[in-house]
Amino acid sequence: MAISDIVADESLLPVLQTSAETLAQCQALLTLLNPDTLPNDGAKLRELSLASSKQQKLLFALLAQLRGQNRDAIFRVRDTKQSTAEARQEIDRLHLQLQNLYYEQKHLTGEIAACEAYDHKYLSLPLIPVEEFLELHPEHRESSEHDLMIARIEHEHAEREKLEQARQELLKRKQGLIAENKKRKNDLANLDQDLEKFIDVCHSACPSLPWMSLLIIGPGAGVHFRSLASPPGYQLPPTIDLSAKHVPTMTTKTGDQESPQASASQLDQPSVKRAPPPETPAALQTRFRVIAAFWAVIIFLGFPIWWKTTSIYRASLPIEEMVDWADGKACRPVFPLEIHLATPSMQSLEAQNLLRTTQHTLDDLNEFAAHHLRLKLTDGSTAAHNGEESADGLRYIPEGTADTALTVRLLPQEGLAGPRSELHAATTQLDIFYPPNQVPVPSSSNSPLSAFIAAELQRLYSEEKATIAYILSGNTAGLDSTSPQLAEEIDRRLRRSMKYAETYHLSFSLFTPGSEPSSWDIEAAVNEYVSPLLQAFSPISNFTVDTQVQLYANFAPTAPKPEYDETEAAWTLKKEGLSAFVNAAEWPLNPSIGSGPTINFILYVPDPSQSPLIIKENRASSWIVPQWGGVFLLNPPLSHTDDQGGLSNPAHLSQDSLRPAFMTFSHQLLTLLGTPSTPASLPLRLQTSTRIRAASLLLSASSTMGSLARLTESLPSIPIPATVATSVTTTLSHLSSSCAHLREGRFGAALASARVAETEAERSFFEKSMVGQVYFPDEHKVAVYLPLLGPIGVPLVVGLLKELKRIAARRKAKGAAP
Amino acid sequence: MSVDRRKIAVFGAAFMLRLLLTCLFPSLPDLLTGRVEVSTPVNSFKRLQEGLFLYTRNVSPYDGGVFHQAPLLLPLFALLPDAKSWPLPTAIFYFLVDLLNAYALVTISASGQSVKSRLHSAVRKHVRWDGVSVAAWFLFNPLTIATCLARATSVFTTSGILFAVSNAVGGNSINAMLALGFASYLSLYPALLFIPLVLVCYDRRSEGPNPPNVGSFIARHAALLLASVAGLLGLSCLITGNFWEFVSATYGFHLLVPDLTPNVGLWWYFFIEMFDSFREFFLGVFWLHLASYVGGLTTRFRRQPLFIITALLGVFAIFKPYPSISDASLFFALLPLYRHLFPLMRYTFFAGSAILYSSLLGPAFYHLWIYAGSGNANFFYAITLVWSLGLSILLADTVFAALRDEWEQEHPERVGTEVRQV
């Protein structure tokens, strides 16, 4: 199939045309240069070469055009893909809607079926037959079935109501009869009482009937009376005065133990239950006042105290914003690195061209959108200046301008076959030497030099990119090109390095099993070898340094002893045994000083009898203990001290002798702080470290915000003090400023904001007064309140209810009286 | 003349008994001083000595965080010789304070206000003890003797209250208010007695010609009380120099109950167990509970204001934050004034047994818990519960008897009938 058949797109036709032209041009050139027709005459040859170079230029022009078109075509393809994807999403959405509609339809059908099949009550009503009904109501004869049914049901309803009314009337009558009955019975009972009293009176008057009084008074002696309620208007018969005088003699006779006073009142205690005399209005009023006094205390003092002491202060938190941060909706961290390109010996047009092509190549190479390199042209002088300025890598650049990540200096050098790069170890400068003839021509869209620069930059930042991708996504899956070794390396490094902290404590310890060396030039060594590094790290974390010397420090009894190796002429430690080297039980290595974690550096000087001490497998003398610190075995030159030829360590370790150890320690410190191992330039690594820390702090603070938001949502009973709200606000503002700084490439400022954000986030999350009540659910409050307030409350509430009832009853009585 | 001789005999015997106990058992006062039943953080003599030591060396007495008593006690005790080397003068001073308290009781009893006041007259007026017997009850009560020997500073509060009452029943309302101000200044809680005390004064005044207006009478006396307390506070301020420091160390200590040393009350155990976040709330509840009785009892016993004071003292002995046996002894001191109510009480045996049981077992259980280590805090707390239960029963029974007395006065025809509480 011909190519013109396959490619039918309008926009691609020019490409085809151009490529055909190019092909023709190529063929023309080839024909021109056909060795068979090559003339041997010099003048002709020159002519030919002129012609061929002309042809060649034409060819180049065509090629350039073709490249341009190719680029366009690729862009168009991307656009098309994009629009296809959008269209497909739209279709998916519509499809989903369709399915929803389908389900809705099914549901509705089901509902309709259910409605139709509904078994209504009226179907099972025992209605009178239709014929009977029609006889009763002939006017319904003509009406439809529906109306007829309604009429029948209404008829049934009316009938039933009539019957119910009749039933109620009968019930009332029954009640009336029962009441009548009761009243009669009461009358009878009263008659009984009167009779008894009559008998009493009669008895006192006729003492000849003692057995009768025994029968009647005896049971009465033990009966209590109620002190609160009584039948109104009860009056003793007038004869009682007379009778009372006689009672004492009589009751003694009947064996009653009551005192004379007590028995005086016995006469008004009949054998049936008796109520006490009525309460005076004054007593009622007093009781009302007592209850009111207690309730006044409860209402006017108790409730305000309860409200004041148990209300939970919950400051309002911007929950949605916090959740947005945790979900990564609020900020997508990007890392635009600004790279300055200094071309002191190039024309500005050439330089522009080079810049453009290199940027193109870089963009094509990059596959991780969040991390990209931006080239920028500077003239040589500012570049050098910038390079010096950012020598420490992390100094803040004035607001508004981005940090310069790297300065690339292009220097022409004669006699080079291809470009060559050289990275300054102490500054952020990359020198690229190139043969002058490789300067790309303005028309060309690609050149070996730009490709070289792009590849070099890509290589420099590949590890950082992988690390950031790892942190942002939790794995390296997002980056296809990351080699498994690199991924493993990053993973290992992150596992080995300390968790980020605001402050690290560095502890340098000198351990020796003997009495010497007993002093070391530690202050000078720290100042010389460690302090510059700490200075450089100061924007990332704070450090404190302390040191100690421990003599007679022995190995743990369980640790494997060093063995003498004849071939090495040295004492060796096995690699497997290194984990037991540090005698954590006896060596005074503080697990933590103050708030931050401690990084321990141990300088171990072996006993003269075991010197030199090295590691068996690789003759190394130092190792890292992940997330804890580093160990260095120092074997100082031994000296003869006594006559028997005994060897001893020097008593003092000078700064020079400490040099290898402290170089190692500073390297270990870098590793423990999670600084990447590439590139070779320390400032670049620090910059990388800054970016990585900024990214991880940003993520950690955001997720802390999310946790706090979830916590406050799920536990509505915990208090939120105002300080937490302030901390949250500070965190959020610093998070957003950090994100903005990142976007503009000011990583130092971004890290500073992220640090503040992280500190505030931690403070708000671990606020003490919140934590105290987390485990105090509402239902426990019942257990807290009831044991004391229950017993106090019950009599008060009951008293109040009784009083209210009494008042209500009196109202009713008043209302009924007139 | 014979009455006077009896009085002298009782007072002298009480004095000699105390002196004898101090001389025969020289270690007894210090032993009692250390007992938690007698010495609480707010009345301990030991703490007073600590404060005194700091005070005599010109250091703020509240700096040590041990001393929580009113500052005016310091110059008073600074006048006495050192209690460590010369224990007798201090002891005799305390004996004399006890005798003074007994004298105040005699005055109260002699006034007869407990049986017959302006609005009330007991049914069994004739059933009563004379002042000397009441004083003897007080002076020979083991609780009083223990308090006196332990040199607890609550005896000064006791004298403040007793003199306030004795002046009130004697019609000397200004002195009564000054004495109550002194007691309130020392221990804060006697201020709650203001309303019943003013009622006593008012009733006394109203017995004479042209009774004063109730509102202005109360307001005048409240102002008097406030003025006396303010004057004492001003004096204290002169002594300590730092007003807020001493207020927070004394009254703040009373109100917020930060010291949960075991005592015979109900607060310490409860607040040890309490969740911290509810502490303030329950402090409020406990204090309100204590204070809420004032209103209720005052309304109910308007006709016997002296009985309100007695009942409230019983309530304080049970429910106050740092109670000791001295509070109970004050309650027991006023009870014999109501001898006429004794026949009406129903559970005296039960209450007496509970109190005896707990006062004997309390020290034993405390020893088991603290020294022997074979018991725990619940042992002692259970005993303090029994103690409070005994006091509560006694108090409730007394209140019941007083109610019954009032009721019998209204219904003379039913005197002596049995009753059932509903």
UniProtKB/TrEMBL annotation, chain A:
It is a multi-pass membrane protein. GO terms for biological process: attachment of GPI anchor to protein; GPI anchor biosynthetic process. Residues 153-180 form a coiled coil. It is found in: Endoplasmic reticulum membrane; Nucleus. Residues 250-269 have a biased composition (Polar residues). Its main location: endoplasmic reticulum. Pathway: Glycolipid biosynthesis; glycosylphosphatidylinositol-anchor biosynthesis. Belongs to the THOC5 family. Belongs to the PIGS family. This is Pc18g05640 protein. It comes from Penicillium rubens (strain ATCC 28089 / DSM 1075 / NRRL 1951 / Wisconsin 54-1255).
UniProtKB/TrEMBL annotation, chain B:
GO terms for biological process: attachment of GPI anchor to protein; GPI anchor biosynthetic process. The chain crosses the membrane at residues 7-28, 91-111, 132-156, 176-202, 223-247, 267-294, 306-324, 344-366, 378-403. One of its GO terms (cellular component) is GPI-anchor transamidase complex. The keyword Cytoplasm does not apply. InterPro entries: PIG-U. It is a multi-pass membrane protein. Pathway: Glycolipid biosynthesis; glycosylphosphatidylinositol-anchor biosynthesis. It is found in: Endoplasmic reticulum membrane. Pfam families: PIG-U. Keywords: Endoplasmic reticulum, GPI-anchor biosynthesis, Membrane, Transmembrane, Transmembrane helix. Belongs to the PIGU family. This is Pc13g07920 protein.
